[in-house]
Specification:
alpha/beta; TIM Barrel; 2 domains; two-stranded antiparallel ribbon; disordered N terminus
């Protein structure tokens, strides 16, 4: 009897031990599976490609761009148009703007309009009253445009007999006038050109901000920057310093690879085309490196001829794609980027 009881006790203990081992094994298996799942999720998350932190669009003056299949396959959603501040009272420029903007809106593009000097009186800065009257008419004429810049490259300076630019004080007054005339609109703060030496640019920014405070106008939360001088020298310090000086969100409202511009950026035997393509690659990297840059507008779509003073076109004058177009096409993951590129 004692032996039977002993054997029974041993059998019971063995079953308990086996049950404990089985439970422990099950817990271990579940734990490993959970760890692997977490690890797999982490790897998947780490391996997932990151998209750019900014939107990419383009600026151009010719409505032909919108019907070009090479442009359409890029699936851009933002575009920029530059027009004189007095466009609404000038028949030719109003008709041109009307065609361009309606073509863009028909394709559901968000249009950013930047004003600049009058083509009739380019060296004369308008009074605030005249500016306010003319841009108010423009805003009324184009009710669906809700993103504006009060003056293109405000700090560009004056070129005798060609054009004038506003002082920082004038620029602040124009900004205030446009802001008041289009209350539902997003009005970008200064539209700034970086230039080779950025000292005067930083001074202009400081003077503009001082005037905004003086006017008791809300400080812009979004600013515009053209960083041609920086990226076309394969440098990024100007962009960084100006972005820091501006504060807030920054849109590169004009940028891109210069094919031809004076002696600094010649296009000898097609060298400018190759350089511009490399600059575009670099430009995307610079934009991605700064989280405060939220938009990038390339300039421009339509290229020029050998005697054109400034040429940064993704197409040549005959709307044939250049090497720079291929860079942009691949950056935006378009379907058909292996096109035959032009040699001019």
């Amino acid at each position: 009897m004692k032996m039977l009881l002993a054997l029974h006790a041993k059998s019971l203990a063995l079953r308990v031990l086996l049950g404990t081992l089985l439970a422990a094994t099950l817990v271990a298996v579940l734990a490993v599976g959970s760890t692997e799942a977490r690890s797999g999720a982490h790897v998947a998350k780490k391996a997932a490609p990151r998209g750019p932190s900014y939107m990419t669009g383009i600026g151009d003056d010719y409505a032909e761009m919108f019907n070009n299949p090479l442009w359409r396959q890029l699936h851009m959603k933002i575009v920029r148009y530059i027009t004189p501040y007095d466009t609404a009272v000038r028949g030719y420029y109003l008709a041109k703007a009307d065609t361009w903007i309606h073509e863009a809106e028909a394709l559901h593009e968000q249009v950013l309009v930047a004003f600049y000097h009058s083509e009739y009186t380019p060296t004369k800065m308008p009074s605030v009253a005249v500016y306010k009257r003319d841009v108010a008419k423009f805003v009324q004429y184009f009710p669906h445009v809700r993103v504006y810049q009060s003056w293109d490259e405000a700090n560009r300076g004056n070129v005798a007999h060609y054009f004038s630019s506003p002082s920082a004080t004038q620029a602040a007054l124009y900004y205030q006038a446009l802001k008041r005339d289009c209350k539902p609109c997003t009005v970008i703060g200064l539209d700034i050109l970086d230039q080779d030496l950025i000292g005067p640019t930083l001074t202009y920014i400081a003077e503009f901000k001082h005037e905004i405070y003086h006017l008791k106008t809300l400080m812009p939360r979004i600013w515009g920057l053209h960083d041609y001088s920086d990226v076309n020298r394969f440098e990024s310090w100007r962009t960084r310093d100006i972005v820091n000086a501006l504060g807030g969100e920054v849109w590169l409202t004009e940028t891109g690879g210069i094919v031809q511009f004076g002696n600094d950026f010649p296009n000898r035997h097609g060298s400018g085309l190759t350089r511009a393509a490399r600059v575009l690659q670099y430009t995307f990297k610079v934009a991605a490196s700064n989280p405060r840059i939220k938009r990038l507008y390339l300039y421009d779509w339509t290229g020029g001829y050998s005697k054109t003073r400034f040429d940064a076109g993704l197409m040549n004058a005959h709307y044939q794609p250049r090497a720079g177009y291929v860079v942009v096409c691949r950056q935006l993951h378009a379907a058909k980027c292996n096109v035959k590129v032009a040699k001019n």
